[in-house]
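Support reply, case 0932

Customer input (verbatim):
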Amino acid sequence: MRYSVFSIARNALQYHKGWAKVWRSPELKANYDAVIIGAGGHGLATAYYLAKEHGMTNIAVVEKGWLGGGNTGRNTTIIRSNYLQDSSIAIYNLAHRLYADLSQELNFNTMFSPRGLLMLCQTEHELRGFKRTAHANRLAGLNSRILTTPEVKSLVPIINDSPNARYPVLGAYYQPDGGTARHDGVAWGYARGADAMGVDIIQNCEVTGLSRDGDQIVGVETTKGTIRTKKVGVVTAGHTSVLMQMAGVNMPIESVCLQAMVSEPLKPLIDVVVMANTVHGYISQSDKGDLVIGGGADAYNSYIQRGAFTSLEHTVTALVETFPVLSRIKMMRQWAGTVDMTGDRSPIISLTDVKGLYVNGGWGTGGFKSIPGSGFVFADTIANDRPHPIAEPFGLNRFAEGRFIDESVAAGVAH
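Our regenerated output:
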């Protein structure tokens, strides 16, 4: 449906009366070919690609709250693929390539902005570490390189490049096509696309149990009734271990709180994304003008979504040293999400010992940037009951076999 400028204004004044809904609000059916638990970006992308690539449309996506109300709506929208390990590069690079054309694919503006991303080098050790990552990325064909301090200053004029700073800028690792996208735009685009192909998105429907018949999954218990199905994909960032325990599967995951905030709107100040691992902070400027600021995860386990001001204070203190111009701006709001952390800081995309039960979690601080790639390979894994080649290294069995994918440095500061 197309609207003229006048019809948009008229409907806005009438509280959007008469506007078509972007997706349906269907009743829960008793039987589905597959159930995806979690209507965040990863879950919706999985459902979309199951329908589009594999012809599975009798699918339910069940969400205990509202669509995109979890970590998908509680992040800082950074997109990059410059990780260290080959398997990580493969999944994040797939996601990055899909993001580039996602607005056209979904016919929905995701506001993808490949504005460039810098990861500051503020110690000699960090500079050496990023040079190592740069070589790995070059071999993988990524467009990334090390910048000198003057090159960093030319891209980020507000940065403190004094050699006498407590944490001087010695250079940066630069991915020119890294950037940001609109988090709710990604969720809404995938939701509308999946719904158009017949996928049922059921909101305010909490899962209370997973039913097994021996080693086979047979159903999902929810607050809206029982669903019979032989395929269940668990995609519930922050609560993966809780859901999987319902089926008797233990997960090597801990849940922690990750916070961020936005400033008051400002005139254009910084047109790239800057990450500073040494001082634990990162910053970008949104199209509205506010500065999006975040840092490291809380140091203790929890499922809360409010965080603590001590973490924000630590982040702001560090960033003000690197960007002195920020010292007098006001914070408008802050938020937090609950993220899954694995020991090697890499995700889990896997079959399980329970037939028909699949899990996608443990993304830690890297969830948003991976949404399209994660959904694509997880859908393939569910549809064909075997790991997609890109997903195979991220199986649960790697923890028992000692095949860790160590990304603790590349994911050292959130995102």
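We compared this against your earlier run and they match. Two observations from our side: The CA atoms of residues 280 and 295 lie 5 Å apart. The radius of gyration is 21 Å. Please reopen the case if you see a mismatch on your end.
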